[in-house]
Amino acid sequence: MTTMTAWMKIRRSRGKRNSTMTFQMVTSRRKDTRKRKRDFSSPMSPRDPSQAASHHAALHAHQQSGGASSRCRRSEHRSVTTHERRYLSGAPQAGGAASPSTRSRRRAQRRLTRNESRYHSEVRQEAVKEALAQYQSRPKNLPLPSKRSSVMTARSPDRHHRDSDSEDSDEDSVTAEGSLGSSGGHSGSQGTPEVTRTPLLLPPPQVPSHSGMGTPGSSSGSSHHTPPHPMQQKQQQPLPPIPPHSNRLSNGEDDERTRRELSEMTDLMRNITSFPQPPDVTNNTGGGNNRPPRDDRITRYSGLAPGRQSSSDSENWRGTGRWKVSNKIQQLLNTLKRPKRRPLPEFYLDDEEDLEIAANPKDPNAPKPEGMVMTPARGEQLVIPAGLPRSVEDAVYRYGSSSGYKAPVATILDANGKLSVSLTYGKLLSRSQKMAYNLLTRLGGRGEGNVMPGDRVALVYPNNDPVSFMCAFYACLQAGLVPVPIEVPLSRRDAGSQQIGFLLGSCGVSVALTSEACFKGIPKTSAGEVVSFKGWPKLTWFITDHLPKPPKDWQIPPRHSDDSAAYIEYSTDKDGSVKGVVVTRSAMLAHCRTLTSACNYTEGEVAVCVLDFKREVGLWHSMLCSVFNGMHVIFIPYSVMKVNPASWMQMITRFKASIAIVKSRDLHWGLLATKDHKDVSLQSLRLLLVADGANPWSLSSCDQFLAVFQSKGLRPDAICPCASSPEALTVSVRRPGHGGANAVGRGVLSMQGLSFGVVRVDQENSLTSLTLQDCGQVLPGAMIVVIKLEGVPFLCRTDEVGEICVAGGAVGDQYWGLQGMTNNTFKVQPLLLDSTPMNGTSTYVRTGLLGFLGPGGLVFVCGSRDGLMTVTGRKHNTDDIIATVLAVEPMKFIYRGRIAVFSHKVLRDERICVIAEQRPDCSEEESFQWMSRVLQAVDSIHQVGIYCLALVPPNHLPKTPLGGIHLSETRKKFLEGSLHPANVLMCPHTCVTNLPKPREVHHGNYVGPASVMVGNLVQGNRLASAQGRDMGLMDDEDGMRRHPQFIADILKWRASTTENHEILTLLNSKGQVATSLTCAQLHKKAERVGCLLLEKGHINTGDHVALIYPPGVDLIAAFYGCLYVGAVPVTIRPPHPQNLQSTVNTVRTVVDVSKSSIILSTLTVIKLLKSKEEKFDSGKKWAPILDTDDLPKKRLPSIYKAPTPEMIAYLDFSVSTTGMLAGIKMSHGAATSLCLSMKVACELYPSRVVALCLDPYCGLGLALWVLSSVYSGHQSILIPPGEVELNPSLWLSAVSQYKVRDTFCSYGVMELCTKGLGSSITALKQRGVNLSCVRTCVVVAEERPRVQLTSSFSKLFSGLGLSPRAVSTSFGCRVNVAICLQGASSPDPTTVFVDLRSLRHDRVTLVERGAPHSLCLMESGKLLPGVKVVIANPDTKGQCSDSHLGEIWVQCNHNASGYFTVYGDDGTSNDHFNAQLVTGSTGEVYARTGYLGFLRRTESVQADGELHDAVFVVGALDETVILRGMRYHPIDIEMTVMRCHKKISECAVFSWTNLLVVVVELDGAEYEALDLVPLITSSVLEEHQVIVGVIVVVDPGVVPINSRGEKQRMHLRDGFLADQLDPIYVAYNM
User: Fold this and answer.
1) SS3 state of residue 511
2) What is the rounded distance in angstroms from the CA atom of residue 458 to the CA atom of residue 1274?
């Protein structure tokens, strides 16, 4: 395995940001079966092999370098066409259907606009250059993720429709393609080949020490090593199996241990070699569809040791803290009057408040406002010019019926640049009256709809048909209807279409007006009806073309009151929700009069409009004010602007227009169309209204446009930016033609001061300054104040940034149907600092614009509330971030300048996300180079980190109707995981600075176990100890007590006393009896096996015999045949025919490790062992193999009887949940004691019938299949789990058929039934399946009970009579296969809710159900008779109290005798099976289970009258992840990951050198892999306050699962480190 790492240190000062960071580039090897090439000499890293280090050291350095994570990417030889196919294959080429002349015109236009840049400022480009220049001379490397090549060429199925030429631009983007010119590019040094070869590093901000990523010098030991030459793999002997536990170091040894571990990491990894395949005794029972056999899932990774020294990759930190329930939950608890329990004493500090404080720090050096409290800015008195119409409707009548009725009111420019449609005032009057008549008569009178004056109707017209819209709008005004203009729905998946539907529903809209041409383009069903759009009410579509004329005697309805609604304009929130702003008739009239006065509109003027005429500035000026003043408007559709950006200037020249209504985007596009400049004359232009003048970056476009076109007659005083909002309508506008000192304002402000909400003037040449232009003065008759952004609406000071509020008659009235939000927005009463209302009775309307008032009443806007992002207590604006991002070589990487910036809250603070469309010809490496530069530029200029930076294919982001980026829909898709990015870069280590304080060890105040015990006793805490009922002489079966002592003798005794009693019944997949044996038949068959061993095997007493059988009675007979002759049986799962390569090696390993001298099997299995596929094996000869299909019909002369109970009866080999193969020695006495405990607990007698759906090869499954029925005499229904995979209803049908009271299964079987029979309950009931007979249904497992699965199983099959009390779990481990088991007369299983945060500190705190951070735990059955458990501290071996989480220690007669290893017993075995407490009963001997848990005394009463002590298993000790001193259990993180995306089918979590690794199985297309990375990172961070270091996305079936349905996380970790997972994508978070 070859790796590459580059090392640097991290250093960052407060004032001057000099920072570097550690990057690692980890390149992993792929299997040749995938036909994937690899190339380590990418342009990202040096070719010198001395720069490489081990993969493990790289991962360790990743965590120790302040969280700077490595990013691994597989390099491939790819050409540019490969990347083009990635985004363009499968879809028609843009413009492929266009004519040659059209294509030629587009090419020419692209050549003209190749030097474009969006909102570019020379100052901003210089700032970016300087921020990046300081890192040019440093070593360069870039962490790249590993991506499967199929992902690189894959393409989302829904992308092809986005590639048409008509959709490749947006209203906020640029149209040209090509590289940036001198005005928009970087310095010349950045264009050199050298810089291109070596990408620029992005040093992130320094991570504070409390982030727990290691000590400052922790990486020094491994940073200077060079990797050795690859060594040939050596064949080694199997290592002895290590128990699933390792001793923890004492607190005093932590520092020395940490230093030694870090300094020797590289040397340790250098000498690591490949060990033989780890043995596996697991089955292929599956828990889910589309999974390969389980054998393949366990042993697919080669080069792993069969026994592995389990070490804790943790830092033994300790700490204190106290957690507190949120106020809302506390209020709920108080309301419900729930009883409060006495809180247990806690010894850790509450870090929830610390998270809030850290997310909003108080900087003592932050600038503060110093000015006086502002006073309202008043506009001049509104003087209404004489001769204006009385209302907007009267204007239509006046101009349409006068002698000038033929004067044009609207003209449309078509796609060919010709004036196609023109509307006169006379036609406007006649058409609007015609529509008004038909609306009131046809819809109101004939029953086709129910439209009455005052009702709301939707206006659905395309952007290229302003004439029809104008007629319909004025028709509604004349008819007394309230028009609601909306966009044309083009498909069911339109961005924001559902929210528009909610608006229509809330407004009670039932009629939609549209044109005939538009109606034809609306999606329809096969029956010709309009499809039902999601969230939309049922609409009656009314075509406004070809309507009949009204009769001559028809009169227009009387005029409505002034306070009635005139129209409703929709407003979109930051989260995408749509609200309808009601504008009354009086406000509409006042607004028209105000704009007429402010803009000096006069009759007969010609205006050119490029904006959307249905909303905001476009509606107010081109539809209302123009008609109100008798003007002529030339409309230029957006589709024409894309083809000819200079068309609006050409119309000004042609018609000598005096007014132009544009956006800064149009100014920018006009600048780039240099070919058309020579014919442009702007001398007639007196008002160039810039609608988005409130955008801080519109200044650049205005200045550049004036500089170029001043020679074309453009006057400086003609450029008039304005500020507006849907709620307050026009806020301010610069007066055209007004000069003077206070007419125009400009300010150079400090961006740092603005981030703190304070206005501070900066130097003009500062690289971190923001230059703002004014948005004009207050409108006539209006007042403006600035109030604080949050909380009570106090007035701001004069040098403070706040939200601008407007009072006057020309403002919105309310949100339709939202009274609460209306009061907060439209009825604001500003307060003075002493909380008294401001003088005057006027209420103000919030504009949503952030800014301040300058001298002379000038309005300055520096952002919007929707674009505001508050990160770590500082405020940033999305437009500022976009401008900085676009200044980093935009034309080389960003497709048409399309960038979306938003924030979402993670861990109580907002995190910035940047989503951009990358160019199709941009390579993967170049993309990550650009992303690194963007991170550095934003960090240097704005002093804020980007949480997520994602690149998507071209035309992939959701669009608005005019082609702009639909921000809320983009954010929604990102958060729900449906954005499908092409590249993702997550930087949580650099952004998240409010993590909880790490748990630290205080060596000076060490408290020993004796002191802890005394403290618990003083506080009244019960020491954690529990004991099952005493067995005594509970078994009163005389024969069993007088004669047989061991299990083999009991079978012989039963064969003689109850020879015809059927004891075993094996079922096949059809539910039929495959084989059944009585006691005598089993005894005879066992004798024949014994004779075979003596005659052909020449077996000696104590020899080990490997039993390789499929699940069945042959395995049981062979087991007893070995016992009859004194041999020691070893049960081994046979190899799987479909996966011989790994499973045969597994069998070989177990045979070798167990020292089996003979193998017993069937002919079918023997053929597999000796087949040609054995070439996969190492070539060794098998031990002698005996076929038991044809046994000699002889009887044994005598049956071997063990002289002492301590003699070994059998060996039990199994792979534990920690991934280690461990063989345990079970003595004859332990086997008999185990059977007696189960018999007493479950009341097993010969009359009972027990159904077993388990694997018979290890643990409790082996005891139930082989031992229990012979000992107790009950009949066992044997159901192999493999048969349930073929027939999921087999197990439950058998339980119903045989009326089974007690049944045992595994989690895999339960999951199969839950998933496979979910829709078959009715069919099962019809077949007569009845589960009411079941008394106990026990899940056999070695893990924490899966509450969700057992609950789902109980609820699903309750319809078949299954009692919810019946389902329970058991618990066993290697040292004791059966510790807890639900008994027949035991209390019901207990469920508790514990605080998830306290478990990280090894504390147990009970909380109420529904409390925040609560975790539901179910007890793992009842303690078996004769079993005693204590909870001990795994480090100090002191006994814990009930409030502590500790290791479960067990003492009973059926404990295993020890581990069976190649070299015999060792110290580790003695420590595990002969452990003693250092406090309390120090003389007693226990076995250490290696599992963490706690005891809880419940209120239930046992059969003996004592209170019941419940055992709760939390997780395996060796699987816990220690991060930042706190203990995390993998299953908790895995449950969080499983919930974050529906395409995640399985998940596993492990750690490596303080790095949290998450492996997820993607049950979907490969292009969806990158969607998971941000969701997983955010979900784990939010719920567990821990940062994910590596996310590995793999195919379904990769996570190994054993026969009990338990994940083998350690096997997965070994496969990850050996690069054997074949991942789809590997992301290394920075």
Assistant:
1) strand
2) 76
pLDDT of residue 543: 92
Residues contacting residue 1363 through CB under 8 Å, at least 6 positions apart:
1332, 1334, 1335
992-1026 pLDDT tens trace: 888 888 877 655 455 667 667 666 666 657 788 88
How many whole angstroms separate alpha carbon 376 and alpha carbon 1171?
94
**What are the pLDDT digits (tens) for 608-617?**
999 999 999 9
pLDDT of 1203: 84
**pLDDT digit string, tens, across residues 1305-1327:** 999 999 999 998 988 999 999 99
SS3 label, residue 417? coil
Q: Could you say which DSSP state residue 1440 is in? A: P
Tell me the pLDDT tens digit for each residue of 463-478: 889 999 999 999 999 9
- Give 537's contacts (C-beta < 8 A, 6+ positions apart): 501, 504, 505, 509, 510
**Cβ pair 612, 576 in contact under 8 A:** no
Model confidence at 224: pLDDT above 60: no
Q: Give the closest residue to 1450 by CA, choosing from 1492, 1486, 1493, 1494.
A: 1486
Integer angstrom CA distances of residue 410 from 419, 431, 633, 638: 10, 14, 5, 16
Which H or E element spans position 652?
helix 647-655
DSSP category for residue 162: G
Distance CA 1328, CA 1296 (A): 8
* 305-324 average pLDDT score: 38
Burial class (CB in 10 A: 0-12, 13-18, 19+), 811: buried
More confident residue, 1000 or 568: 568
Cα distances from 1114 to residues 285, 1107, 1208, 1256, 1264, in angstroms, run 20, 10, 22, 12, 15
Distance between CA atoms of 680 and 1350, rounded to whole angstroms? 77
The angle, 0 to 180 degrees and rounded to 10, between the axes of the packed helices 585-599 and 392-401 is 70
Instruction: List Cβ neighbours of 1467 (8 Å cut-off, separation of 6 or more).
Output: none
Q: Is the pTM of this model over 0.70?
A: yes
* Distances from the Cα of 577 to the Cα of 502, 574, 668, angstroms: 9, 7, 31
DSSP 1408: -
Write the single-letter amino acid at 848.
G
pLDDT at 223: 36
CA distance 1399 to 1261: 31
Q: With beta carbons less than 8 A apart as the criterion, state whether 1027 and 1237 touch.
A: no
Is residue 599 classed exposed, middle or buried when 0-12, 13-18 and 19+ CB atoms within 10 A define those classes?
Answer: buried
Instruction: Identify which of 219, 205, 1626 has the alpha carbon closest to the alpha carbon of residue 992.
Output: 205
For 1115-1147, letters b (16+ CB in 10 Å) and e give bbbbbbbbbbbbbbbbbbbbbbeebbbbbbbbb
Q: What is the pLDDT of residues 780-805, one digit of tens each?
A: 999 999 999 988 999 999 999 999 99
Measured between alpha carbons, how far is 1109 from 1115 in angstroms, rounded to an integer? 6
Who's near 1117: CB < 8 A, 6+ residues apart? 1077, 1082, 1085, 1086, 1089, 1188
Residues 6+ apart with CB under 8 A from 1102: 1126, 1127, 1128, 1208
Separation between Cα atoms, residue 535 and residue 1284, nearest integer Å: 44
Confidence at residue 1133, expressed as pLDDT on a 0 to 100 scale: 92
Q: Distance between CA atoms of 500 and 899, rounded to whole angstroms?
A: 24
Burial of 455 (0-12, 13-18, 19+ CB in 10 A): buried
Helix (H) or strand (E) run with residue 752 in it? helix 751-755
Tokens representing 788 are 């604080």
Alpha helices in 1064-1104 (DSSP H): 1079-1095
Single out the residue of 1161, 1150, 1157, 1152 nearest to residue 1089, CA to CA: 1161
Residues 155, 148: Cα–Cα separation, whole Å: 13
Instruction: Assess contact for 1292 and 1331: CB atoms under 8 A.
Output: yes
